Amino acid sequence: MARRIESLSLAGPAGRLEALLEEPDDQEPRLAALVCHPHPLYGGTMHNKVVYRIARGLRRAGCVVLRFNFRGVGQSAGEHGYMAGEIEDARAALEYLRERYPELPFALAGFSFGSRAIMQLGCELGRGAGGAEFLLAAGFATRMGPVEFLAECTVPKIFIHSTHDEFGPRTDFERMYLNVAEPKRLMWIEAADHFFAGALEELEERVREAAWRGPMACE
Question: d(Cα 201, Cα 181) in Å, to the nearest integer?
Fold first, then answer.
């Protein structure tokens, strides 16, 4: 079965959002996943190599994946929204995904800035009816803002982190992780930097494994 790829223009709170929808290569989708990209002001787009690998890992696990550009990036309308705006962009993209695949459970994933956006949105939505199966954060930057909300978030949370992440040094990250509410799981990847240099294939495989197990990955 050939993989379906669609370029989309979604309705967003600040105007149209450029997006890309991809279904699995060789199976019917069993989960719908939204993937958010790194910081818009520092070159982050839905085509970022880490985002691409996350999306491919999710597809290999049977997910239909929606990537999109935050406001002001690529063909998306608007201007940078200092996280609050981008969370609303993610909410609008998720609404489209859930309307498109109403029968499927959903998950949220992101890299760097995008990982913070999906964690905040996913924790707000909560666990159970209307909530995500799991939240997957790659390169969650400890130095990008408050993290206290994670102490109250009971949605299953999967963190994938580089051993040499300059925006979330290992000591800082481990200290933060201690205060993150269960259920949770942390996977370290031996990589050169925040962008998983030299370890993108391992990142993709870890994402595939985690997504295939879903919430059970946190047990």
Answer: 29
User: Residue 13, by phi and psi: left (phi above 0), alpha (psi -120 to 50) or beta?
Assistant: alpha
Nearest one of 102, 104, 107 to 90, comparing CA atoms: 107
Prediction pTM value:
0.96
CA distance 41 to 79: 10
SS3 call for 14? coil
Question: Quick one: pLDDT at residue 93?
Answer: 98
Alpha carbon distance 212, 33 (integer Å): 12
Q: Name the residue ranges covered by the structural domains of the chain.
A: 5-218
- Is the Cβ–Cβ distance between 138 and 203 less than 8 Å? yes
CATH architecture of 5-218: 3-Layer(aba) Sandwich (3.40)
